[in-house]
């Protein structure tokens, strides 16, 4: 998922994608350990997706915080 697409998601959607991607990453890591994972590059892609989700989530929360304080 590209950064532009991630920025367009709502906070709840970002949190859901983050949970799903983390669960998928765990499964992929376990599959890699048992030798069942064919496409090992997907682990790196998922880690980058998680970073994008967390960055966008933090930006949205910081943007909402000053507005709520006023």
Strand residue percentage: under 5%
pLDDT < 50 runs, ≥5 residues: none
- Termini separation: 34 Å
Q: Radius of gyration from the CA trace?
A: 15 Å
Q: Helix segment count? A: 3
Order of helices and strands: HHH
The total beta strand count reads 0
Overall structural domain count = 1
Question: Quick one: overall form?
Answer: elongated
Q: Architecture, according to CATH? A: Orthogonal Bundle
Counting helices, strands and paired strands, the structural category is mainly alpha
Largest sheet: none
CATH class: Mainly Alpha
Mean pLDDT: 93
What name does CATH use for the topology?
Helix Hairpins
- The amount of helix comes to over 70%
Q: Overview of this structure, please?
A:
- The chain is an all-alpha fold and 70 residues long.
- It has one domain: Helix Hairpins (Orthogonal Bundle).
- Helix content is 81%, strand content 0%.
- It has 3 helices and no strands.
- The longest helix has 29 residues, at 41-69.
- The chain is elongated, with a radius of gyration of 15 Å.
- The model has no long low-confidence stretch (mean pLDDT 93).
């Amino acid at each position: 998922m590209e950064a532009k697409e991630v920025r367009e998601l709502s906070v709840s959607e970002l949190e859901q994608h983050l949970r799903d991607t983390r669960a998928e990453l765990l499964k992929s890591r376990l599959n890699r350990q048992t030798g069942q994972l064919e496409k090992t590059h997907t682990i790196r892609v998922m880690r980058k997706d998680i970073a994008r989700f967390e960055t966008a989530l933090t930006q949205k929360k910081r943007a909402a915080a000053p507005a709520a304080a006023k």
